[in-house]
Amino acid sequence: MNQTTDTLTAGDGGSSGTPAGGPPLAVKDLHVEFRTRAGIAQVVNGVNFHVEAGETLAILGESGCGKSVTAQAIMGILDTPPAAITGGEILYHGTDLLKLSEVKRREVRANQIAMIFQDALSALNPVFTVGFQLAELFRVHRGMSRKDAKAKAVELLDLVKIPAARQRVTDYPHQFSGGMRQRVMIAMALALDPDVLIADEPTTALDVTVQAQIMKLLAELKDERNMGLILITHDMGVVADVADRISVMYAGRIVERANVHDIYAKPSHPYTKALLQAIPRLDQKGEDLSVIKGLPPLLTDIPPGCAFHPRCTFAQDTCKTGEAPPEYAVNASHDSACHFWKDVRGDD
Amino acid sequence: MEMTDVVLETSGLVKHFPLTSGIVFKRKVGAVQAVDGVNLTLNRRETLGVVGESGCGKSTLAKLLVGLERPSAGSITVNGTDLSDLSNEELRRSRRDIQLVMQDPYTSLNPRMTVGDIIGEPFDIHTDVVPKNERQGKVRELIDLVGLNPDHINRYPHQFSGGQRQRIGIARALALRPKIIVCDEPVSALDVSVQAQVMNLLDQLQKELDLSYVFIAHDLSVVRHIADRVAVMYLGKVVEVGTHTEIYEHPTHPYTQALLSAVPVPDPTLRGMRDEIVLEGDVPSPADPPSGCRFRTRCWKAQDICATDEPALENRAERPHLSACHFAEERDVIHAAT
Question: Which CATH number fits domain A2-112+194-280+289-345: 3.40.50.300, 1.10.760.10, 1.10.3210.10, 1.10.8.100?
């Protein structure tokens, strides 16, 4: 637990601008379980992170590592049951969201923390126009008249650079292309000026040229509004382009955290290192890719000790039993949950 | 290169899907020009990468190549025989030589069939390939070849992970000992750590079995890794073809350049230093493509001539390779930083 507080204070440069009570969003020792027919799946196992105003934190991991569930827990949109939050705190400027009533929680969801989803077509309601869905936010949460709310909707579509916003406001979601739909999602998330924006794989369903447009737009809007952005993704290329800090997740735990330059230059957890070696790169000629052997563990049956040990090339006997390795401080802003982080870094 | 080295050739390949209107008296009101005049060649033991964004016709091209769709015009030649000359019986036989690996390992395997039945199904259709009593052994051999445990022959697809399912799909494609395999986005549904395993498997099989691949993907990094030659498609047309080096290091078509510059590189030290081309807008509808050059609506180099004259795919620029742009000019997008 001490380590948690260390990392929380370490990167705390923006205390002057933020209201009392610490960073806009901090997650402490979060645990989430799913009760399934195959047993209890431990999806999130003690996750800690925080995000400052105006910074981009990337949460990186493969499918099933618990990154989306963490985001849903923050938003309070987990289906409970089967899911259950079994421990931890989610602090918004120091207030624990998990202790708030559902009514208060809804207010936070509208005004303070917003989320955009991977698949914009299924996240938007197909039977209402885009303009109606945007205006609804202002009518419900700000008590505006229909006319004012509609004007606001047009303004927002303009903000996310949808051409001919005044005409398109009466279109339905299916009349937009994939990239335009994602812009509508962003507009909706930003409508009520949140401090924290969670983007769950915002560009995974999009083509590369459109992905570049959307990431550029998100970065601009984040800077303009001094928001904290949590970017959840599996794409190490996108992360290298936009993130300030990175947390790498594996089997429901954060296994390495550092600023973006450190982690790519000197990965200090075997999983991060192996991931970086396994991606084909556009700027390098193809030779045999190194492979991570085996498969990620079933979350109903996470191996004892370090969850990564069956696939790890550095694993020793100490990794195979007992508790998961603690987060060792590699340096002031770099932590690794590996007993042998020194060997992983190497000095070659 | 001799003629005998070419295993697959398409010439002027066209596939239009008609758009109709009316219920009783259907009228043709237009056509989706999914593939519109594609000329490609594939040499023996070569991997030809086909890249493009969604809607550019790359999956339709895959279906045409393996005979799941009939071309509207143009021809496909496999090992020197033109497929359009063949009778149905001969066509069925020729399909043994060219097989497909599909994109989504979750939907392309029948959930009610065991792995053994899925991989052995090609033998039920092409009954003379393997005698009945040897089929089980052959299937086990195939399962082993793609790196799975032959004892899992009676399991169902849901008992396997995504990467393993894709291996099953590959084993099925290999069953009839094809010479050519068309891979339609074989790794795009997989996680990075598993993606590398499948790509290495494809590489190894190519060397062992003397295969030629048509590798269709939207991910330029993956294609760079595996392909010898690359064709870039946009709205049903090939806009640039060249060797690996020509396309990635000396691209001349603006679309290729934009596509390359948009791919994020996993190296934060290059942030803000790369040659960034962010295209405006979306891909136009293939039912109503722009006149002249189809890319001109999003191109920063477009002039009047681009709207009137369609640029031919011909050798252009200093390092000549095929490029369909009136203003083809080299631009080193990837290495711009260094």
Answer: 3.40.50.300
